[in-house]
Amino acid sequence: NAGVTQTPKFQVLKTGQSMTLQCAQDMNHNSMYWYRQDPGMGLRLIYYSASEGTTDKGEVPNGYNVSRLNKREFSLRLESAAPSQTSVYFCASMLAVSYEAFFGQGTRLTVV
Amino acid sequence: GENVEQHPSTLSVQEGDSAVIKCTYSDSASNYFPWYKQELGKRPQLIIDIRSNVGEKKDQRIAVTLNKTAKHFSLHITETQPEDSAVYFCAASINGNQFYFGTGTSLTVIP
Question: Are the CB atoms for A60 and B101 separated by under 8 Å?
Answer without folding.
Answer: no
